[in-house]
Amino acid sequence: MKGSAVGSVVLVPYADALMSLAQSQNLVDEFGDNCAALLELLDESPELSEILSNPIVKIVDKKAILANIVTDQVHPFVSNFLMILVDRRRIGYLRGICQRYQAALRALKGIVLAEVTSAVALTDAQTQSIRDRVQGMTGSNSVEIATNIDPEIIGGVIIKVGSQVIDSSLRAEIRRLGLSIA
Question: pLDDT at residue 149 above 50?
Fold first, then answer.
């Protein structure tokens, strides 16, 4: 399945179901925290992602692994949701489902996600300045900052909010200068 097909067939319905359950139980923020913890776990352990995605690994084994790792870290409803994903052979899509859930949570709360790429780690003052600028630009209630470090941009920052990209990196300035000279 291609990216858009996976999005419409698997990710959206499961993320929507999780959001619906969270709203009905007044657990929207707790489920959001659980999804963040699961995403962090998947990022820290590529081996776990591989095991969960591997069709050769038995369902019983996947459930046992998840039970040992996440039972104490997530709400029981989220734990049950994970077991349903395993039963339906959709656990390999966990990362995408959690990301979709968090996007729905941000939309529900009027929070904008700004993906910021810089050459070096940003200070708290720089992060706050970017947060204020994006909030003024979008008129949102709040701004969540996701930072990435890419030394190849040399200096400056690249800010992505939705489909809008503000590239004030030194690499982009050099490219623009080269185009204007040519």
Answer: yes
**In this structure, what token pair is assigned to residue 138?**
């979008």
Q: Tell whether domain 3-106 is in CATH 1.10.520.20.
A: yes
CA 85/CA 76 separation, integer angstroms = 14
Angstrom distance (rounded) from CA 115 to CA 160: 5
How high is the mean pLDDT of the chain?
90
Q: Where are the domains of the chain?
A: 3-106, 111-181
Q: Are strands 157-161 and 142-149 parallel, antiparallel or unpaired?
A: unpaired
Tally Cβ neighbours within 10 Å of residue 99.
14
- Least Cα distance to 86 among 74, 95, 94 occurs for 94
Q: Which two tokens stand for residue 56?
A: 């050769």
